[in-house]
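Backbones bend. We report:
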Amino acid sequence: MTVLLLRSISWCFALTIAFDQPNIFFRLLPKYGYFAILIAAFLEGEATLIAAGVMCGAGLLDWRLTILAAAIGGSAGDQIYFYAAHERAAWAIKKSKRLSRWYPKIQKFVLRHATVAVLLSRFAAGFRISIPLVCATAGMPAKKYSTLNLISGFAWASMWVAIRVSSP
């Protein structure tokens, strides 16, 4: 959480410096900003969305397109974890002592509360990667996971962008 806060502060500081003088950043933002948000949300999420929310609040980006790009990018990243887990997760769980210890508890929770686990995994630090892996190895249907993951992605993106757009 501290790392997230520091990243967000550094992004906001960089944006305030950029807002003081017109430069190439502002000329490229309307053209490539949403693509950058999509890629950044794919790799990392909250710090990107806080910075994007600041830009939406300043009128540089449209909040609807920002949420769309972030939700698709974040969901695509989780989909890759889900599909990669079909092949490699069982092997990794057997090889890792730490995963072997934690996996039965997480698997039991996910199997009992699969829908809630997928919807909330994006909001719980540390579970964004583990829940897709457990869902895949536990046998959750890909169609169900994909649908829940996309819904969760839109809720997650909406929350982070709304926090920055609405705050002064």
Summary: The chain has a mean pLDDT of 79. The chain has eight helices and no strands.
